[in-house]
Amino acid sequence: MGGLKPGILVVDDEADILNLLSYNLEKAGFSVLRAKDGPEAIAIARKKNPALVVLDIMLPNMDGTEVLKRLKHDDSTADIPVIMLTAKGEEVDKIVGFELGAEDYITKPFSPRELVLRVKALLKRRAETGRSAGSRLSFKDLTLDLSRHKVTVKGREVELTNTEFKLLEAIFRAKGRVLSRDVLLDIVWGGGYYVTPRTVDTHIRRLRMKLKGAGRYIETVRGVGYRFTEG
User: What is the pLDDT of residues 182-197, one digit of tens each?
Assistant: First the structure.
């Protein structure tokens, strides 16, 4: 991992892209881990615990969305931020990536400088909002275990995507205060380049469904946003 240098795992089956990203990331002060397919990427992520993953969607053996899904559903890798990298530009691909828990998205052809800036911004955001080990948020039958990235309702675990977890945490921490859709976009997606306020509504709807009875704690404030209600 190169001493104190943050390790970035770059996953792409194109040697030219791997070399380009490695050169620019190393020049920016990062150490770089490389993987050419999904299984190799998952193995490296579990073993090396990189600070961030740059993940191509179009991969041999296992596509990037499946790699993302497995990383976000594994306790040992769930909290590693992921930037999706792809030649596709369709909105559906971006939405799928975000719903599975990707933190950011960049489309080929891309500027290496822009990608490095996004890596730095994402790592800075993570450091500023870092979760302390063992910390929990609880209200009645709902508990968020921040260090283990798990949510339980009445003692039973609820399986959430990384994005859903971050939405719930943001609303929970702001107890009583209304968070607008734009504020939630900034907190959860970092001002997400490809996310619209409507996407927040979609995620909230799915989050409530998964939480079942505890979903009532997330109140819609018409024309404004959402808040955690203790009523």
Answer: 888 877 876 545 667 7
Residue 226 pLDDT more than 50? yes
Please state whether beta strands 104-107 and 142-145 pair in parallel, antiparallel, or not at all (unpaired).
unpaired
Inter-CA distances, 186 with 12, 52, 157, 177, 183, Å: 28, 19, 27, 16, 5
Q: For residue 50, what are its two tokens?
A: 């990189």
> Do strands 7-11 and 31-35 pair parallel, antiparallel, or not at all (unpaired)?
parallel
Domain map of the chain by residue range?
7-128, 136-228
At residue 231, what is the residue type? G
CA gap 124, 81 in Å, rounded: 11
Q: E-assigned strands of the chain?
A: 7-11, 31-35, 52-56, 82-86, 104-107, 136-139, 142-145, 150-153, 156-158, 179-180, 218-221, 225-228
**Stated pTM of the model:** 0.59
Tell me, what DSSP letter sits at residue 77?
T
Express each pLDDT in 68-93 by its tens digit.
989 988 878 888 889 988 776 656 66
Looking at the DSSP assignment, which residues form a beta bridge with residue 53?
9, 82
Q: Which two tokens stand for residue 197?
A: 């306020």
Specify the fold of 7-128. Answer: Rossmann fold (3.40.50)
Q: How far apart are CA 139 and CA 111, in angstroms?
A: 45
CATH topology of domain 136-228: Arc Repressor Mutant, subunit A (1.10.10)
Q: Are 52 and 123 in contact (CB under 8 A)?
A: yes
